[in-house]
Each structure stands twice: as C-alpha cells, then as structure tokens.
Amino acid sequence: MSLSRRTAARSVRILGVTAASAALAIGAAGSALACTIGDFSAAATCDGAKGVITVTDKDASGVPAVVTVFLENNGADARKVGELTVEGKGATISFAEDWAPNAEYRVHVVATKGKKVLVDEDITPNLTTPSKACQTEDTTSPSPSSSPSDTPPSDDESTPADTGSPTPSDTASDSAAPAPSASNAPSAAAQESNLAETGANSNTGLIAGIAAALVVVGGGAVFFGMRRRGSSNR
User: Fold this and answer.
1) Model pTM?
2) Residue ranges per domain, the chain?
3) Runs of H (alpha helix) within 107-203
4) What digits encode the pLDDT tens for the residues 214-227?
C-alpha cells in the first residue's frame, strides 16, 4: 500500500524540523566550546619577595594560546616581559616580574586552530599591580652588640708572659740561709727535768737504804718462822 501525499509531506516536515534542531544544537555547542578572549584573565601576585604575573586560560576546548606580557609606560610598550603558551581548561602560566606598585601591564593573547585565528587581542582592561610591593616577613630581631666588658679577655691578655726572670719571692727564698737541723742530743734542761721525774736526786740513797733494811727484816722474819714451824713438827 503506497503512502499518500499528505503523509509524505508530513514526514518531510518532521525530518526538516529535527535537522534544524540538531543544527542549532551543534552550533550552540560549537559556540560554547569556541576560544574567546573572555576565557583569559591576568593577575599580579607575590611569590615570597618576588613579583609574579599569572595568566589563567579557562577555554574548555583546550586550544593552545600564546600569551605575551608588556610593561606599559604612558600608553606605550616600554618592555617585553615574556611570552608563554597555555592550553586552556583552567591552566595557569606565570611570568617572573619584579613589578612596582601601581604599574600597568598589557597582556596579549593569540589562539589559533589550524589556519583559523580564534583570538588575537588584549585582555581588557590592562593589568594594574597592587599598591604595595612584595615583601618578606622578617621575624628575626638583630642581636645586641656585646660591650667591651662582656667580651672575655683572650689568653694573651689574661695570662702574663713568662719572661724567665726570677720573682722577688724566688730571690728571697734562694738567698735565705737554710735553717739548722734539730739535734737528737737532749739539752741540759731536759736532762735535769728527766732526773727530777725519775727520782735521781739527793734522796735516792736514803730510799735505797730503807728498802734494803726492809728486805733484811723480811728475810729474817721468814727464816725464824720456818724454824719455829720445824721445831713444832718434832
């Protein structure tokens, strides 16, 4: 059974609307993925005491772009800072630049895909650096200088040099005569005192005579006692 003309015309219209919708969707997607100057941004930051200019590429398509930075002076390029390539998708590149406060820089971007130039313009407005330069935090305080009184004397100053000359004390000791050695012989006074202590004086003879008489008397008493005991035993 063949289709009627009316049915065929309706089918063609439906296909046409679908194709147009698809074309619009593809065009919108292509436009969304296209690289534009709005995908790029620049900033002046500090890396410690060093200045840095960073450029960020948020292009989702990842098209390589050449970024060139110039220092401006009264609306003209005074100096070329550098040139680097960035490939989008949030990538960031950095230019080492010791920038001064409130300086102005021009950032130019060129992005091509094949032979087609997608971007060839400056990031607007020009980049202006912060009003305060980069500085390092100095947490160390200078140590106070030591006064001369705090400095310990050196060995040369504290120890007098030995010149080899004899000191007054050495000379006096060398010139003094040696003390006489003590004699072992007892003195006359010591002999008299020893005789007095041991009884060797004028009373010694009298005491000896009395002792002898007592010995004789005692011996006689013993003799007579033994004789009497013998006569009584008979």
Assistant:
1) 0.48
2) 37-128, 204-234
3) 155-158, 168-175, 188-198
4) 888 888 887 877 77
